[in-house]
Write a sequence for this structure.
């Protein structure tokens, strides 16, 4: 199953059936081999969190207001001192060549074309420098801590040099393995899909466990970052550091207190611990914990423009798009991702217009139906 | 797909399978071409609001009382100083020739035959004057603001001249496009279905957008009415002006305060912004906001007589029937619509009788099961 | 469809597949013609109340207690000064020859064999005198008010003479017609199924309605009983009078205050007004309204012994079994009904034993899981 | 149906499709004859409690914390003064030769290999002495009261002599019979499956019931244990006595007060009275009733490591695994059960690591998502 079965190669045009952003999801399984599709689409465990992410949006209504003048409307948001044209960020999805041979380079070109802030993954299929060159717009670098601090620091220095404007440290995925769905579909990472950023780093040797020690606690988790690691990396760079994977208000408050520049409320798209809450559900209490004005992004579960509206209403400054991005990439490469962003933005604008909100700043909890 | 496929022409009798008002819904797809049926039946987005409209009625119970004398019972209601025989109004559905070649004329004849108050749409397939002539009963004119105020005013003047007794200004549908369902079914408005009332009006030129401007905010919404526009039109006519599309108590209160004659609580049958609340859910807090005695109508989601009972119990003075009207029109023209009204009225009367409410005024929140 | 299609005649033995009381429901459609089965099984309208009756039991849990001595356990209950062997009453189901040629006579024999209190319907297929002769046990007569008081009084006098020990006046079904389900299945009452008790009574002439009068209010409801009618009949008989069809606490209180001997909390098995609450849901507040010690029965929705336990825990002194009775009658006549009662009683006893309740009096709200 | 149909014999290796503990459930029906599988898998009545056990876990979320150091993590728990390597106990499932010819001996070997505390059933297919010899680890003996006290005492003496460290008295299954599902599948206990521990005991004669006596109350329940019986057995042994089958806080409190050493919160896997609450739902109020530090185990519904995490968070010190144990036994004998325990332990460890809990003592209600 390691060989990719024959599937449709990515198109060079937008297929006629795409009527809304979510349509890329329905189409994607014809463009991605089944095992890889299972790897991308699946969530951990019984996928309760995966389902909860979607259900959380469905469970929240919008309370529109009438007759408001929105002709001066726009979607601009300020984040980390920068003005973004719109609040749709491209999430740091790993190994994008699973979906398209052009991988992250195509994605970056779409970001460039749509003025989208790109977040490049540590585990990208192409070197971060190549990705950085492919977009003139805002770009952040997502950082996974490496087994050795020198490796971690090397990644940071390269990101700084390549012009990334912020670091996004992911802290909720210390142990990663393909989901049950992916394993049942026979997924194995293809031999030619490798973490390009890490190829010159010495990989850590196997942990040697003594009798009675746990593969989890004394093995895999021995490389997981702690509060000390986070403080260390913040001391090594002048870049703003955001933390991704936050769901608990107390953690959010502690991170803010130690100088973290912003948070990404996320459950990793339901790909880490099954049973944890939907990101959207965690968002309001995190906004309450950090107060107004502190940068918060929402990741996991966005499937359309009204989802973005709901996230903004419940406290997010912007959102990250993960799976939809990969699906659009698989269908039509850079063109697909750019089209996806355009659709999401139009859907958001239509939602804002019909709800009576000319700008993102107008989208407050008052527009959520209780 | 623009040509209509072969479907059953409207009957000249009531088909034997019709046992209740809702049965017209089940039958209609044999009388309407599939794309047009999708256009009529569909709701916006993922149709969450469309489903919510129905679920809201199902989620509410009736608390009946025993042994009451209802032999003096009736369904008469007072609205805008007029006494209506029953609280079932025919909603202003656009382009009724999509369902039946006789379109709004047939509907008006049914209104005439059943003493139903008819609400004619700006976007009718026949001129408002022809529609007005087809019914001797109460009739109101639904007004969409036009790109130019002179066009809007011309419509009002014609409605006044034709004998319409009130204006119903729709304010929740500034941007309209066929639903995803309709687009996926290949719906395009047939060439011979045109807004008869607007054929002599100059259509606005294309909006020219400069770089960075939004098709939504600076484009389509530039023609959307605002509070000022509403105040202006109220100053131009002696007709009572109702506003249709209200869901928020604060908007309801503001509209009442500016002299609007009554409100139609409506989410446009789930056809505008997906994710907004069911009309029925919004109704009680709007009644609370405007107080007793102020005219309120409920639109969206009525499928039978007990739904009308529930709407009246939660604060409505009357209801509007949209999709069912079109379905009955497609099945049997004026005869079908008249039969539909008869069924709805009988179902309402039976519900009132069994619940112990002889008149609409007796239907209070006390008859709702908590 | 008025002729009965070929179906399996009732057996003279218990079929092997019957493992629990509810199994009679699954089997019955092979023993009853489809239209008649639809008539028996169906509920009014969209059958929301029919479904709610069952869901109400499913939604309530049992809180068992441990290690209690139940060896002196029994199922005896006191009702109207009589001791019944068990709290399972056979509900007054009309026209039982629809299910079995022996109809109510078979049912009465089963009551006799199982010490069950039988409630004979006004609309029985056999004369009440014949039914009374078929059981030596407790029996009550269910009374529908007739168009003329002399007819009603005649029924009461015959019930008194035949030895019925109480009257159960049904007040929630003033307008009755086959359900949508029954009409869609083509049900018409077979010509040979007639109300035996009423054959010598003059049927009322057609009501003549003047213009604008309602078939419901001025027509059908002109024969519905009112508070005055109930008071009148109570003055005509020394028999205790119970009222069936009560769902509202205020009605319950008023009925108790006027001297009614007991109430049957019932929504007529979901066969009258669709949308009214489940009987079980109404039960606790009615018990609260009438206080301890006042006779209350629960009808509608019982499908097994644990349902009886739940009803008793929530305030009922006994329950009535409707549809299951008819299903068992169809499958195996008197034998089937007797077996059904035996199963229900065993299921109840097992539930009591495992919950730690030796007698019905021990089954209090404390045994309901919150 | 008493003959076992041809099914796959237990494997001597772990089948490749097993990715998580619950996968043994999906595989088991190929290794167990259909009637026996129905007997094992089924629950009593309509299986509401069976479903509730699973739904209770699904309905509870986990609230993870970030960046915590778990490298000193472990799964050790203290119970009855002993330290167990992990909180996964093998529940006392009866008649394990239904699933595998090696039955309880295989299970005991798996307990031995995985340092799991084994709970042997009174109704084991092999003598308790043989089971005890098959594992060097902790073992408890589950006791059903026998019709005669001398038989019960004999079991206790044998358990003491065989080295069992505690008695687990089951009190919630005084009446046992195959479920509806099992009966419908034609299950009868095979002739060669017998309670090995009881073969030398005189079985009680049939209870003779006099007229009007109940098979349940005066028959089957005459042998059910009461509070006095429990006090008696506690006076006969120096072994700690736990009670299994507790769901009510008042019972828990009373048992603690009389000196019971610990409780197993259990509804017998949904196999006794249908309609009683999920074990997990009952757990928090029982912990509240007995206070901190008192031994509590949770039984019924565990299907994976995160379920164990949730049980510990809500007050359990350890859990018992019933059906999954039998399924793994059927698939691969001792090897399967050992693998199951390994999977459950790894899943628990992964859940603890990702939630930020290094030890069981760290798993508090604060980690439950509200």
């Amino acid at each position: 199953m390691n060989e990719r079965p024959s599937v449709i190669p990515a198109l060079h045009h937008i297929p006629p059936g795409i009527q809304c952003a979510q349509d890329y999801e329905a189409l994607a399984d014809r463009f991605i081999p089944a095992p890889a599709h299972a790897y991308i689409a699946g969530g951990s465990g019984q996928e309760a969190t995966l389902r909860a992410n979607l259900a959380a949006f469905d469970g929240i209504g919008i309370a529109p207001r009438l007759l408001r003048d929105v002709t001066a409307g726009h979607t601009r948001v300020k984040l980390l001192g920068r003005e973004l044209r719109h609040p749709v960020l491209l999430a740091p999805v790993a190994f994008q060549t699973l979906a398209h041979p052009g991988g992250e380079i195509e994605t970056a070109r779409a970001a460039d074309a749509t003025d989208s802030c790109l977040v490049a993954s540590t585990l990208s299929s192409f070197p971060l420098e190549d990705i950085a060159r492919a977009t003139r717009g805002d770009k952040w670098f997502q950082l996974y801590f490496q087994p050795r601090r020198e490796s971690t620091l090397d990644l940071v220095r390269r990101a700084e040099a390549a012009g990334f404007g912020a670091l996004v440290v992911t802290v909720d995925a210390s142990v990663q393995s393909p989901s049950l769905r992916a394993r049942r579909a026979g997924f194995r990472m293809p031999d030619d899909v490798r973490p390009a950023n890490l190829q010159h780093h010495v990989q850590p040797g196997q942990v040697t466990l003594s009798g009675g020690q746990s593969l989890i606690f004394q093995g895999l988790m021995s490389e997981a970052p702690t509060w000390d690691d986070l403080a260390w990396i913040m001391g090594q760079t002048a870049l703003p550091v955001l933390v991704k994977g936050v769901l608990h208000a107390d953690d959010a408050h502690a991170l803010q207190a130690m100088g973290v520049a912003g948070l990404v409320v996320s459950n990793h798209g339901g790909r880490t611990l099954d049973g944890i809450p939907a990101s959207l559900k965690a968002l309001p209490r995190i906004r309450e914990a950090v107060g107004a004005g502190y940068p918060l992004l929402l990741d996991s579960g966005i499937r359309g423009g009204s989802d973005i509206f709901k996230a903004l209403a419940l406290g997010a400054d912007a959102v990250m798009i993960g799976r939809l991005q990969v699906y659009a990439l698989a269908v039509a490469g850079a063109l697909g991702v750019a089209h996806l962003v355009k659709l999401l933005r139009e859907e958001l604008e239509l939602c804002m217009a019909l709800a009576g909100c000319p700008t993102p700043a107008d989208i407050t909890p008052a527009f959520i139906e209780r």
User: Anything to note?
Assistant: Chain A has a mean pLDDT of 95.
